[in-house]
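Late entry, evening session. Most of the bench is empty. Finally got around to the prediction I had been postponing all week. Sequence below, unchanged from the version circulated by S.P.
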Amino acid sequence: MKNIILIGMPGCGKSTFGKRLAKALGRSFYDADQVLEEREKRTIKSFFAESEDAFRAAETRTLQYLSQLEGVVIATGGGAVKRAENMTLVKEHGVVVFIDRQPSNIIGCIQGDARPLLADDKERIYKLYEERIGLYRRYADKIVGNDGEFNRTLGLLREYAQKLEEE
């Protein structure tokens, strides 16, 4: 059974949908950011205080670990797509689903202090989206839009996951 890897912008719903999807499918759920902090015994904020590169290296180590699991749902960090190596790792045993949510819909839902790249400027979400949208689309095996209709988006994710299980 393939892993389901959720990618997308901070605040697009990866963790929220990932938990619900995993529960519906009877699978385990892993939030890569939480796993990173547990395994590295450091906060993401402390990595970013050192450098973004330090954080990205820890993120890659975490995805190496998670990609070895089987049949799980994984929510990556929003910037995991910035390293091709990360996507190669997760695609080895999984399918990648991009949850596409427009920045204008994200901005009211994010907590900047928990997201180092947005801590000082929530409006930066527009710039990050521009920088990353091509990467999200390149690595996605499936794109699911999140227009704010929770049940519709969850339903689309479940439909796709059920098709995967039938293959």
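Two things to note before I forget:
The first helix runs from residue 14 to 25.
The chain has eight helices and five strands.
Will write this up properly tomorrow.
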